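Possible regression after last week's pipeline update?

I re-ran a chain I had predicted before the update to compare outputs. Posting the input and the new output here so someone can diff against the archived version. Not blocking, just want to make sure nothing changed silently.
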Amino acid sequence: MNRENKLSDSSDQTAADSKPSNTPSAHSKPSSYRRQPRRSFLEKCLAACGGIGFLCMSYPVLRYIEPPPETEGPNRIEIDSAELPTGTSTMVIYRGRPTLVVHGPDGFIAYSAVCPHLGCVVKWAESDEEFRCPCHGGRFDIKGQKLGGPVPGPLTAIKVQEVGNKILVGA
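New output (post-update):
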């Protein structure tokens, strides 16, 4: 053989040595083993489960914050006037929304208990004779007018009528 054939045979041999063989060695993993696609699949599954869990937890919180629509519930509510001494209040559900009925010095009054700021439910403070919003410190006088806090306006008044020994809310 001449020298050129020997060089080409040796270069073919080194090229064959550099090609990966199909026979697995004792320390190498099979070619079908793919770590990255499985890891990314599991990461996507975990992200999907986390997203679904977040949505499942946030829906009840949002429904709790938002008051129910006004169209649900009775259009007229009767309360026994003996149950409401002067200076006290009671909470009723009128048209699906919380409503405060107060026996003030001038008679009975009723206001929607939904704060006009963010929709929290206001409470009647007997000692100060004012409505207070526990969420952001909104305050209203006995006539529903704004006294302080970040509220944009007054409470919504609801008609009240006293007939005999009954108080009619929404009359």
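Follow-up from reviewer: compared with the archived run. The domain at 77-169 is CATH 2.102.10.10 (Rieske Iron-sulfur Protein). Marking as no regression found.
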